Amino acid sequence: MLSTLMEYEQKHRSKTGRKSKINLENQLLLTLLYWKNYGNLLFFAHFWNVHLTTIDRIIKKVERILGDSGQFDLPEKDLSETQEQTCLVDTTEVEIQRPTEHQEEVYSGKKKAHL
User: Fold this and answer.
1) pTM higher than the cut 0.85
2) What burial class does residue 55 get, using C-beta atoms within 10 Å of its C-beta: 0-12 exposed, 13-18 middle, 19+ buried?
3) Which domain holds residue 65?
4) Residue 58 · residue 35 · CB < 8 Å
5) Would residue 64 count as lying in a domain?
6) Is residue 82 part of a domain?
């Protein structure tokens, strides 16, 4: 992965402009840590002492470069072997106990739902 990033930087990076505070190895490490944990970008920004948007830009850049290289694509799933799955969600309404005093403060407005 690092060699792919280095090749891209050599070919496409212009000689002008500000260099990144985070070197290429750490940019790759940052992206891999983000993929592994999906951690908070504020943590990464604090850890590398850069702004939050810089972390976001680095992750997007590394994802784009690695994705465009085609070397790190996940294998395609064979959809013919997948099994149909069913998901059930309990959406029943459960009555809760309401106070007997000062009932008008918590009155829901539903018929027969208050004490």
Assistant:
1) no
2) buried
3) 2-6+22-69
4) no
5) yes
6) no
CA distances from 2 to 72, 93, 99 (A): 12, 54, 63
The percent of the chain in helix, strand and coil, each rounded to the nearest 5, is: 50, 0, 50
Domain-located, residue 77? no
44 and 30 in contact (C-beta within 8 Å)? yes
20 band by pLDDT with thresholds 50, 70 and 90: confident
Structure tokens at 22: 């985070």
Task: Please give the tally of structural domains in the chain.
Answer: 1
Distances (CA, A) of 75 to 2, 6, 45, 78, 91: 21, 25, 32, 9, 37
